Amino acid sequence: xxxxxxxxxxxxxxxxxxAFIVLDKKGVSRKGIKRGGRLKNLTIAIKSNICVEGLLxxxxxxxxxxxxxxxxxxxxxxxxxxxxxxLGMTNMDEFACGSSGETSYYGATDNPSAKGHIPxxxxxxxxxxxxxxxxxxxxxxDTGGSIRNPASHCGVVGFKPTYGVVSRYGLxxxxxxxxxxxxxxxxxxxxxxxxxxxxxxDPRDETSLNLDKKFYNFSKNLNPNLRDIxxxxxxxxxxxxxxxxxKKIIHRSLDKLSSHGAEIIDVSLxxxxxxxxxxxxxxxxxxxxxxRKYDGRRYGHKIENVCxxxxxxxxxxxxxxSQKEYSGRYYRKALQARSLIRGEISNTLKDLDALIGPTVPxxxxxxGTKIDxxxxxxxxxxxxxxxxxxxxxxxxxxxxxxxxxxxxxQIMGKALDDQKVLNVMYGFEKCR
Length: 432
Ligand code: GLN
Known about the structure:
Elements: H1 3-17, E1 20-23, E2 43-47, H2 74-81, E3 85-90, H3 124-131, E4 137-142, H4 148-154, E5 157-160, E6 180-185, H5 188-198, E7 230-234, H6 235-240, H7 244-259, E8 263-267, H8 275-290, H9 303-306, H10 309-323, H11 331-349, E9 354-358, H12 374-378, H13 385-390, E10 394-402, E11 405-412, H14 418-430
Parallel strand pairs: 2-3, 2-4, 7-8, 7-9
Antiparallel strand pairs: 1-3, 4-6, 5-6, 5-10, 9-11, 10-11
Helix pairs in contact: 3-4, 8-10, 8-11
The structure holds glutamine.
């Protein structure tokens, strides 16, 4: 493959999509890559909140518009070691705060699979780059759905691993107790392979899990067999899906799975209704704390002076909640609510192999639609935040299209059941 020509082609085609903030024309990120590794011949794009040495790692914010990362994130090191060809840094919602890709300082990204609509976010450029065929795979981060949401809207595969399976070293935090890095690709096999490469114990990340080597053989152990697999579907999902077309596709997917031998079991998640406020309260506080280092002295500009509206909202609310914390009014309650949700999810999963359901309640809106109430944006995250609040693995596979717009089926598993989730995704992909 002629990388230079490839990048030129992408540069031309990306004028319409805006998936990339940086295309690495000079090959800074490809210096010293090994030959013949497991990712050989695969081109990869990296989300702009994951450090790639020598490249602008801006988090799509004016705050870090001049921040050239001085080191590689662990996942980047691992990709290079296995011969993955990094082509550049993708567009995203500013500091990963968003679900539409519209809050980037570098402008919104278009959805290659549904032109004129949002690609989803916050890993908007990663989803779009894969969907447009610019790269074989991309790396995203997922705090409340940011890999799965764009995977659903763009019609690609996305996977958020169990918390601690992939090192967060070199990932710029949104909310560190929820953030995980994961792959996006056009199929489950490539996603599993990329996950296999980027996962593993890393002493530089205190939350990294040290698991048996065999745990990480995700692509080798892929198995599409759905026979006798017990899949739970929560009745609350039906009530919360807004677009009828999505509901139809999800139910059609359930039928497909059951016709291939899976058992579909009705379950209930009565606390689903408090998931969004719980998630956002946690995020506000953690994000506020994470952004205190952007005071204009060390990294770029003082964040409050240059950031966009959504980032500022989170900083102000996080600051307010933190101040009020002596009375335990909000944050302590949010932590209690979080363990309630985690308990409910793990109880529900006890007798199941996985939970399945929608990824998003509604189809992506048209680019540029004016949305005044932030809660309208937050509503996209209702089904995805569950996995982050519980630390469990969750993946998305394309399930069909509503009026030409893709939507994905979400599969969530018990903590450390990453392989099982990938297998159900693989089985579903194969039975289409
Ligand atoms: N949309 C969610 C938020 O705005 C999720 C973001 C993410 O996963 N990075 O916080």
